[in-house]
Hints:
This is Halobacterial output domain-containing protein. The chain is of the alpha+beta class.
Amino acid sequence: MANGGDTADTSIRTATSQAVVEAVATAEGVPPAELCPPEYEPLHDVIDPEALDALFAPRSHGGPRPGGTVTFTYCGYDVTVETDGTVRLD
């Protein structure tokens, strides 16, 4: 794991769950499609991807959500998702 963490820019509005998978795959040096069992645990085993996407999706009127973060452990990384969609791995 990188000292100080790695981040992924999700300003193009990738679904948050997909951004998490892509960030972990990049850190592991594998394509996202290869981030699967038996070597890697499925994301849905640690967090509900649909709930994660909904939590960070723009509001129905298009405005941003208020500040906040979610942190969980996935594939050996402490994953933190920021309100702006930034994914940080520690």
